[in-house]
Structure prediction request, 146 residues.
Amino acid sequence: MISLKDAIKFLAEIVNNLHDILIHLSNDILGLQLTDKDLHFYIMGFIGICSFLVVYVISKKLSQLPFGITMLSFFYTLTFMFVLVFAIEIQQALTNRGNLEFIDAIIGLWGYIIFFLIYIAIVLLGISVKKIYDKVKSNQSRKIDY
Prediction:
């Protein structure tokens, strides 16, 4: 199994190679003479706006569904948790306070998912109890009317 450290090194190598290709393409082939900061500005701006548009379309569709805001909140929090979990793993590796292990990150994310499922179960239980209470209450009021 590949370690998280190896996966990060592999991804860093891909990003570095892409960076070199883009610098070569923009400066040597197209003659744009972009600095590293210029390249970051344009590439990250492009990635950011494309991501925003995709998230916007998905969010708009999800918000129209029952419990859509709950789903949006779940996905936003899941995204935050991905960043947090991997930041903690990287921090542990940099400070030698732990090992950089992919399984630790996965277990941390499972913790959030399990806690969220417990939250959903409690909410569904509350909704069910309310529906049963309302049904019993409406049946009692009909009996009184006769």
About this structure: The chain has four helices and no strands. The two ends are 72 Å apart (CA to CA). The mean pLDDT is 90.
